[in-house]
Amino acid sequence: MLYTLLNYKVAFSIAIKNTQYFCFCGVGLLILMAGINASEEKQPTCGPPEKSLALLEIAEDLFVKAKELYPTCEPINPIESNIDDDFLSLNSDVVPLNAESIAAGDRPKNCVEIQGSKYNKSGVYTIYPKPDEPLNVYCDMDTDGGGWTIIQRRAYYPGMKYFNLGWSFYKRGFGNLEKQFWLGNDNIYTMTNQTPCEIRFDLEDAKGERRFAVYKSFRIDDESRNYTIHIKGYGGNAGDGMKFHDGQRFATIDRDHLRGATVLQGAWWIYEWAYVHLNGIYIPGIDDPRSIHWYLWHKNEGLAHVEMKIRPRPS
C-alpha cells in the first residue's frame, strides 16, 4: 500500500509538472492509476523488489502511451521535450536492479575480476570499487576479450529518456542498466583512478554500420575538478574524435561554463563545441549538432546505438 501511494505521488507530480505540455494530463494520470491498481489485483508471484520494478515499468509505459494518445495542444519540437527528472531518478534509485550473485566473501572491483571468477556471461553484476560500497554494473563479457564495465548506453527503447539532465544526476548516475543509463561520474572517477584504465566506444549508425574507438589511457578527475577528462592512445576505425576533448571539464545544463551543454542539449566534456557528443538527443540519421554524434565518422548525423565501456589496462 505504501509503495502504491508512492507511485500515486510520483505520478501526480509528473502530471502537474508537465501540464504545459499535455492538455489531457488528467486522463493520463487516471490511466496510470488504473494500471497500477490492475497490476496489484493480479497479485503476481514475484517478490517485493521485482514487483516494485514491474510497477515502475508499467507506469513508465502507460505515460508514454498517454503522451501518444493525447498529443499536445501546440506543436512542440520533439527534441526540446524532456521526461520528468524525478521519475528518471526514481527508476534507478528506489528499486535497485537484481545483480548476479558472486561467491560469498568476494569483493570484485571490476568486471575483469568477475570474469576471472569464471562468470563469463554478459549481464548485471555487483562490484566493489570501494570496499564497503556495492555497485551494480553491466559487464560486457563478449567484446574484445570481455571484462568491460559499461558506463553509458544509448539506444532505442520504449519509454526512452532524454539525457539533458543536471549536474546531480550525472554525479550519481541514472537510468536502467538493461537499457539506457549513465553510471555516474563519482563511480567513473573511483574506477578510473584505482588502476590504469582503457576505454572503448562502440558506435552504430542508423543504417546498422558499426565503428569503434579504443583509448589506452582514460581517467577523470573528481568533482572538485569538474570531472575533467584525461584520454589518449587512440586506436580503432571511428576516428580520433576524443582528442579534441582531452583536458576538458564536464558540463551540464545547470553547470555550463561555456554554454556548450546548453546549446547542444546534453552533458559532456564540452569546450566551445563537440566533436564527440554521446549524451545528446536521440535522433538517428538526422543531421543536427545536438544529436548523439561522432563527428569524424558521420559529422553531426545522429547515431542509433552507442556504448562507453572501461576496463583495467592490460599490463
From TrEMBL:
Domain Fibrinogen C-terminal positions: 102-314
GO cellular component, one term: extracellular space
InterPro entries: Fibrinogen-like_C (IPR036056), Fibrinogen_a/b/g_C_1 (IPR014716), Fibrinogen_a/b/g_C_dom (IPR002181), Fibrinogen_C-term_domain (IPR050373)
Residue ranges of the TM segments: 21-39
Keyword Ribonucleoprotein annotated: no
One Pfam family it belongs to: Fibrinogen_C
UniProt signal peptide: none
Gene3D superfamilies, per the entry: Gamma Fibrinogen, chain A, domain 1
Protein name listed in UniProt: Techylectin-5A
Recorded coiled-coil stretches: none
Sorted UniProt keywords: Membrane, Transmembrane, Transmembrane helix
Superkingdom field: Eukaryota
